[in-house]
Specification:
This protein is of the alpha+beta class. It contains 3 helices and 6 strands. A 4-stranded antiparallel beta sheet has the order 1-2-6-3. A two-stranded antiparallel sheet has the order 4-5.
Length: about 100
């Protein structure tokens, strides 16, 4: 069994994420690449004591970037868009 705190890596603070949070009660987090939607839902409900309605995941491939003469690749990552049930609230900055 995986450690609960190794599944969710960090919250994503973006303009699109803040719009989703305000309008549709959704939050964006970066998660480990090898977890599925069921594990993400269970961990969020257990750690933050909120009810999750739905989880959507997106695999983001890293971009190739040039650094002078050398070429490097940014790491791949996985994002989760978590929809909370009505009446539930989760704020990473202010706390639960």
């Amino acid at each position: 069994m995986k450690n609960l705190y190794s599944i969710i890596k960090k919250p994503l603070f973006t303009e699109k994420g803040s719009n989703l949070k305000e309008s549709e009660n959704k939050i964006l987090v970066e998660v480990a690449k090898d977890v599925n939607k069921i594990e993400i839902k269970r961990v969020v409900e257990e750690i933050f004591n909120v009810k999750v309605e739905k989880v959507a995941t997106v695999n983001v491939h890293g971009k190739w970037k040039k650094f002078g003469r050398s070429v490097g690749k940014r790491p791949d990552r996985k994002k989760a868009i978590i929809t909370l049930k009505k009446g539930e609230k989760l704020d990473f900055i202010e706390g639960v």
